[in-house]
């Protein structure tokens, strides 16, 4: 929790890619990752934390890179038997992945905070950097759609992100507080990085925590670099419904739209080379706009982008 | 729940073998199986019912016959990952088997009784006869040993049944009540059969239910056959610690010792051909002692024994 480190705000897949790059470049004690817990939900009596799990599997080199979620070398005996029994089968849980949810739930029921459980399980898998759940309380993201409000996993998995979005109710409508560990990671960081995650459903839930958005503004205004990496590249998202959500909310998905969402808190927005033409409109918002390849296909891409971002500090 | 059927009291492996024989011979509506729940326990936040599961897997032809417990075609992804995470790994849970515990626990948390859950899950796997948990409440068998009291699974799995037994505290010391379904199955049965299960830890927990032992005596005294199949063959048990327990409690393991334990409730004790020499001592207790091969190696053995036992009715 000492000062001078890098604090990284992350959602799932896209955010986890850069997290791996940062983890490969920085000493573990210099990296704290604040993870969105807005997607977390209870299923089959188990607490499931998709973004934390994606970070844990990615950083421990256990992620299924081809699939984009879950673990590598996974099997489906549990789901096969669950279907035989006529149980709920809309949310896939691999046999190995299931151990994470069962052990997390067991530890939480025994009284441990999600922060403590996450530290223990990430540690067991050999992860050095801290993965900090944004809060230890329940802060579900509710997707407001033309068909009414929908719980996040219902929207994302069951409805395959199809219904048009009209807005978001973060933290289930009752703003939550960051953990002491999250506060500490933002006390005197050398730099804050916002990952190339969905601004609406991965980053906003973190920024919505009591005092957190103000804290980032104060850091930036005090000269600490607060650097976002754009999740929009060439007018589209690399993965997931980010661009679709911008459109449904009446905004053209662009780096400028991203810059406008973060203009009160960031000093830099890192643009992909495909968006070099937008440097002027971003800098006009008072935000520096360094340009570099941001699409991370290989581990080398992740390390290269991490180095580029860190060089801004 | 209609009268005139066969009601069978069963523990796990040995009892389940004869249950399969009975299920192959009888119309499903004529067979009710009362299952011991004294071995049930909570593990990893899941309700695990070993004897019910053994009955369900056996009757649905999913049991791992070579191993004697668990499911066939099982995989160990969950346990492998659990070990990686440093979680509790002393009790093996196969990936497919885990679905049973997760779905049972989910249904019980939603308010269903164990009896209802068991009916639904057994039905989903195509099982016709009723499998009735002896009680819907918690009735743990505590093994009293020279090293002090031990929870059943701790004794059986963790300690491998090694400590010498000094006694048993059934139902955790607070006698429980049978379910309405168990009462109904004993209202006007054509016959009651007690399986070749461990008398101390599989059958006694059932007999210890409020009113049940008296009910069997009343049935027998009213002319209804109450037939036990001896779990002791040639002075030893086919499987498990039955003979060891007899010895530790100061009794020579024999069919006569079994007959003495059941003398107040049974009309017949079925002996294996190896014990034909003991017919006289058993009948001297006022118990008929038919002799037939009772060791069930094949499915044909199970059917043959079922027919022999049913012929006593």
Main traits of this protein?
313 residues, 39% helix, alpha/beta, homodimer, Rossmann fold, 15% strand, 13 strands, 6-stranded parallel beta sheet
Protein model, in words:
2 copies of one chain form a homodimer. The first copy, chain A, is globular. In chain A, the strands form 4 sheets. Chain A has a 6-stranded parallel beta sheet, sandwiched between helices. A 3-stranded antiparallel beta sheet of chain A has the order 7-6-8. The relative contact order of chain A is 0.15. Chain A is an alpha/beta fold and 313 residues long. The two termini of chain A are 19 Å apart. At the A-B interface, helix 3, helix 4 and helix 5 of A face helix 3, helix 4 and helix 5 of B.
Sequence-ordered SSE layout with sheet pairings:
2 copies of one chain form a homodimer.
Chain A: E1 6-10, H1 13-25, E2 31-35, E3 41-43, E4 46-48, H2 50-59, H3 77-84, H4 95-109, H5 114-124, E5 130-133, E6 142-145, E7 148-151, H6 152-158, E8 165-169, H7 180-185, E9 191-194, H8 199-207, H9 212-221, E10 226-229, E11 232-233, E12 236-237, H10 242-248, H11 255-262, E13 268-270, H12 279-283, H13 299-310
Helix pairs in contact in A: 1-2, 1-13, 4-5
